[in-house]
Amino acid sequence: MGAQSHSPFRFIKLGWLNSEPVEVTAYGSLEHYGKNNAFRGTKCRGCEHKEKCKFFWDITKDQRLVDLYVKNEQHDGYIRDGCVWSNEIDISTSECPNYLCKWCNCKLFPHHLHYSRRMADCF
Q1: Are residues 49 and 70 in the same domain?
Q2: Confidence of residue 110 (pLDDT cuts 50, 70, 90)
């Protein structure tokens, strides 16, 4: 999930274009996570599918993470151990998403990101 969401920021580092990005378009597909599983929950804590889910993570085993994330969920709404199979997940998980960035100086810069499934599973 995270690989794609952070990738457009790579364009900002292209200083040799002497311009600022004004629009980024991404093309990909949801090939993993989200709706692509027979079961789903809301979060790992209290999930009835923890025995069969290869992504189950017990955040409560690390007090530092509980203090940092769990105790602050009511403030920002971010659920750190949210279910990767949630129907709300709809970002691209393609192994080869493509990006097209338009710059202020009207130049277009295509970008092709390739990462392995193993890398994607780390995010």
Answers
A1: yes
A2: low
